[in-house]
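A quick aside before the break. I want you to see a complete sequence-to-structure record at least once, exactly as it would be stored in a machine-readable document. Don't worry about memorizing anything.
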Amino acid sequence: MGSYAIVKASGRQFWIEENRFYDLNKLPLQAGDTFTLNQILLVKQNNKLELGKPFLEDKYIVEATVLRHLSGSKTRVYKMRPKKKTRKTFGFRAKLTRIYINSICNISTPTPICYL
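That is the input. The structure line, written in tokens, reads:
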């Protein structure tokens, strides 16, 4: 396994690796846009592990590209009141954004960053 990072994005924590794609909650970006993630909790590169307290925002950034927007798998909710003959079925599909991780970069100077 090569380098990896644990980042905080869309209210969740993700274990990410370079040249892979991940599904986050819908982001207000267009397909093809590139952005950076800076809320990095942990980075492992070249057998060197660095922990943030709480983040490594001044040392590392993660560059990502938006591939497309999609809907997640359907979650079905069934409600029934016994002995009352009332039944309801609801469905929900989460709106997601698929992103591609370009690189996990070590930086020396801070740059403008997108907080998600």
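Two observations worth writing down. The first strand starts at residue 4 and ends at 9. The chain has one domain: 4-106. We'll return to this after the break.
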